[in-house]
């Protein structure tokens, strides 16, 4: 795979020490599934004597719910999951995404696309490619130009275009997940040239998360396994932008007591944190999903004491 890394000037410095984060989208209050990600990433940071940052991913404004960011912070604090440094909001970090976008343009790695979802679907079906319902369609490169160029500022400002990143052939991304072991993804066939700015002018999650993780010096990403299919794209973006690749740990899917995947319904119910007793009960549920064992189960324990015991248990699960 040929990467354009050598053209990158002044990448962010290599981060030092452990820096983790929790990056919820404020689409509603925390639910059981997001608490598992919050607790897992918090425990991993504590165990490693690291920093744990809170970043509100309010980029996809149409999906954001007013006040959810405040609710999330209150729920985390009620659970004793305090963060280091100031909370950041993606909506305030547009300049960084724009800079990365321009960089990708200057190294001639992107191109505009005018396809609708429907065009993509019909092109794929004409090619005889079936995409299972729950899977993303791999973009068939319909708009990919023969020759890559640096587009003008006027083109870049045209918010009616979708901008895609051009993948090199055989773009196979492999990484070692701390929980799941070796993971690999063939980006060309499984994803295709992916979107970095949408045709409503919004930068995508893929671009924003990579820019933020680099700018915040994140060294360890602990998050739910539902995000695993994004990691290949993110590592590829890190490489072309000259960023350091953090260590990944995807938390195995939340299972119920019968070993079944929890339904969306169960996962989406907001956690109850009106008082310490409720918060502790939610933490205990989350710890069970994380497979933590030998935690104190009495009622006469403070959240801080319980969290300390959980930190000791982390890594032995
Ligand atoms: N904001 C994403 C979500 O809530 C998580 C991003 C990440 O952890 O990389 O699904
Ligand atoms: Zn297109």
What does this structure look like?
The chain is an alpha/beta fold and 317 residues long. The chain has one domain (5-312): HUPs (Rossmann fold, 3-Layer(aba) Sandwich), CATH 3.40.50.620. It contains eleven helices and ten strands. The chain has helices at residues 32-47, 68-78, 94-106, 117-126, 153-157, 187-190, 205-215, 228-241, 264-268, 276-289, 303-313, and strands at residues 19-22, 51-56, 88-89, 110-113, 162-165, 172-177, 181-186, 195-197, 220-224, 247-251. The strands form four sheets. A three-stranded parallel beta sheet has the order 1-2-3. Strands 4-5-8 form a three-stranded antiparallel beta sheet. A two-stranded antiparallel ribbon has the order 6-7. Strand 6 (172-177) and strand 7 (181-186) form a beta hairpin. Helix 1 packs across helix 11 and helix 7 (205-215) packs across helix 8 (228-241). The mean pLDDT is 92. The site of glutamic acid (GLU) has 7 residues, from loops.
The Cα radius of gyration reads 21 Å
Q: Strands across the major sheet, in which order? A: 1-2-3
Number of separate helices: 11
Question: Structural class, from secondary structure content?
Answer: alpha/beta
Strand residues, percent: 5-15%
Brief rundown of the structure:
This protein has helices at residues 32-47, 68-78, 94-106, 117-126, 153-157, 187-190, 205-215, 228-241, 264-268, 276-289, 303-313; strands spanning 19-22, 51-56, 88-89, 110-113, 162-165, 172-177, 181-186, 195-197, 220-224, 247-251. With 317 residues, it is of the alpha/beta class. It has one domain: 3-Layer(aba) Sandwich (Rossmann fold), CATH 3.40.50.620.
